Amino acid sequence: MDCLFCKIAVGEIPATKVYEDASCIAFSDIHPQAPVHLLIIPRQHIASLDEVRETYRELLGHLMLVAAELAKQQKLSKGFRVVMNTGVDGGQTVNHLHLHLLGGRAMHWPPG
Ligand code: AMP
Ligand code: ZN
Hints:
Layout: H1 4-9, E1 17-20, E2 24-28, E3 36-42, H2 57-73, E4 80-83, E5 99-103
């Protein structure tokens, strides 16, 4: 499958990995939008949150727990933001489900 994040997951395309386990990996975003900007992706190809099924319940929960753990590891004790852009209007540009973990500066609301 011609998917950038699948290629990163199998090591075909390099990335600065900060975490990996049996079901997911986390790496630095190539265009960071904050001092800490990590992407957390499942190893399995799932195009977006719009495609998730009941069978992914545990995996999705796991991704959130990994985000919280990485926030601790990155010392984001003042707070952080987790974002999952979905579809065209959601601003998704890579069609492999991913969480953005952003921190190290104050975030704004509403987002752009
Ligand atoms: P989204 O726009 O929510 O689909 O997020 C995709 C993210 O992937 C963007 O923040 C990009 O900067 C990031 N990105 C694209 N290519 C790479 C890459 N080769 N390595 C790391 N991050 C990437
Ligand atoms: Zn993929």
